[in-house]
Write a structure and sequence with these properties.
alpha/beta; five-stranded mixed sheet; 17 helices; disordered N terminus
Amino acid sequence: MRKFLKFIVALGFVTSLSAKDVTIDISYSLGWFEPLHKELIENFEKENPGIKLNLRVATPTYNEGSAKLMREKIIKQLPDIAFVSFSNLGPLHLRDVPVQLDEFFTEEDAKKGFTKEMLNPAIIDGKIYGVPFVASLPITYYNMDLVRQAGWDKELPTTWEELFELSAMISKLDGKEGMYFDNGNDNWLYIALIMSQGGSLTDENGKVGFNNEIGLWANQKLHEMYSLGKMPNYNISNANKSFFAGNLGIMVASSAGLSTKEEGIANKFELKTSIFPGVKEGGKLPVGGSVAMLTASTKEKQDAAMKYIKYISGEHGNTIIVKHTGYMPVNKLAQENLKEFYAKNPNQQAAPAQADIMGPWPSFPGDNSIKAIDILRNYVEGIMRGEITDYKGALQEATDKINKIL
């Protein structure tokens, strides 16, 4: 552990806060996180009256939040803490946005659940550039009332072929739709398809790594969502409304939305979760969620900001996060505290059940990484909507356009 973390006590480093109040600005993405952030902030400020936390307005997506931080770096208006997706950490590091954190962690922190395994997703070139805040994996949500009405009398699907079959059966019910695949703005679920078959987003040269049989397989699955699964042309807002109303049978989405779905559904129907379908032996799934970056520029604010980051990602804060969302715990002590919670909440177990196939959330390299994601998303959505039927040609077109800007 000594090789991994700097032992700051040996450096004579002592964290202290000024007697005057310190105000910390926090930026984040995805507005539905606001209640959780506000609860964590309220709890922290009660215990730390000398630190005031100001929550900025959320950006709609992680990519927009990342682009905003890059602009704020140039004009010197960065917040003090920024929550970004795991996939955005690398590009932001290239722009010198996050502060390196090695000096803020001691061997004593490891005993508090801040293990090497916990911090590993935020390590770049052997240095710590963030602290994992929330972690999620792709799972499948089922409206069990519609599953039964459709006449499905088998175990829930474990393959895409079974899922499409069930989706088509549900879509034959009057006024009902079969499935929805929530690829999102960042292609997270499309990347999950690639990784589930042992594929990679990029190759060893930093170019598109899925212009092969795995990419063709993934594009074929997208096409079959439309052609076999009868997936409607919804956006995520309409999909959620339909699911909450009991009119959509299956959603493949992030485990992070579990609590929101349970609240939206209330007692309208029986909800059941299951694993992401069709993962090949040796395949992985990209970890979703976000990481807390330190972006404060002064020593006083850095110390205060790190105190808050350690609170929300520590044993107590991380336990609160898991119970209020569908996210997985990142802190080891929080994991141990949640055993009884998982036993009483079986729907929460789908994501942790896949923890052994959890892999990093990769990103395209270089300054045009976000543009590359946007190009890919346009093709993915076109295939899912049935607007692009030549999914083989689409793979080559997307590859050529993305490689050109990388």
